[in-house]
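Fill-in record for Dihydrofolate reductase.
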Amino acid sequence: MKTSVFVGVSVDGFMARRDGALDFLPPGGGEPHGYEEFMATVDALLIGRKTYETVLGFDAWPYGSKPVFVLSTRALQPPPANAVVEHLRGAPKDIAATLANRSLEHIYVDGGITIQGFLREGLIQRLVVTRVPVLIGTGIPLFGALPHDIALRHVATRHYASGLVQSEYEVLSQTSAGDADA
């Protein structure tokens, strides 16, 4: 099973404001920058509860009929009528095994804590990070503390007329800090 991240961040690396607001992102996602094409390759989404609650506030459910697995230790707000949502809890490796057993081939991982947890456990294979030309100064960082370096292979960088700059990476491996110095 392949897991990917496709996320927009401010130039200073924040994926949301401290309160979860996404108002610094371009309205409607901005100009086309590969999101629709990416979503066409995804079998399901894995998101955290806070991301789920943010998405519930959108005018329309953005994921259509794709299954959305929401990680939370708490009860979830009810999903919209047309949404396919399942509540999961557990460690990232257990969640990954559960989803792999369902014959899912490509999972889109989203939400700060969820992305960070899956990265720490070596469970992300691809990162697509789109930088929005704005500095917001503080917020929820895309990347948190890591116990080890994570080696990446640059695949491509694309830029768009609006100023969006998108970089794609393949996640290669995790190395301990001592290994990185060798």
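KEY FINDING: Strands lie at 2-10, 14-16, 44-48, 67-71, 84-88, 106-110, 126-132, 140-141, 149-159, 165-175.
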